[in-house]
Specification:
Blueprint lengths: L1 E3 L1 H14 L5 E7 L2 E8 L13 H13 L3 E9 L8 H5 L7 E6 L7 E8 L2 E5 L1 E3 L1
Parallel strand pairs: 1-3, 1-8, 4-5
Antiparallel strand pairs: 2-3, 2-4, 5-6, 6-7
């Protein structure tokens, strides 16, 4: 289970809408499944169907997370025209088995949603998201 403050949920949705027509992406930092901070990352793919983070930007964020005494809780990205469920490409790029993969769907822009998944060795398991 992951926990996210309503304000951070709203920031994630706003970021997803702002990056339209491309997918948005970012890193979720916190402790013990509780997201404390989100890092909006540049989608270097600049694509509506995929995302890729700049490795230098990612390294900088990971160092900051460590220096703050936090951990990477997960990675988020948006789906523009589909439900919040990992695509085949998402599964291929799930390199962190300990991370939660959060997908924000803005398919229905008036009623956006997020879902979270653990992806280990190609197996997808949904986990509960608590918005506080």
């Amino acid at each position: 289970m992951i926990y996210i403050a309503k304000s951070l949920f709203e920031q994630m949705i706003e970021h997803s809408k702002r990056e339209f027509p491309n997918e948005a992406c970012g890193i979720l930092a916190g402790k013990e499944g509780r997201i404390i901070k989100i890092y909006r990352m540049a989608n270097t793919d600049r694509s509506p169907n995929s995302f890729f983070m700049d490795p230098k930007e990612q390294l900088k964020v990971m160092k900051e997370i460590r220096n703050l005494g936090l951990e990477m809780v997960g990675i988020y990205h948006s789906h523009l025209e589909t439900e919040a469920y990992p695509s085949e490409h998402d599964v291929e790029l799930a390199f962190y088995p300990e991370a939660s993969y959060v997908i924000a769907s803005i398919k229905d822009k008036d009623n956006p949603s997020i879902r979270s998944f653990k992806i280990v060795e190609g197996k997808i398991n949904e986990e509960e998201v608590k918005i506080e």
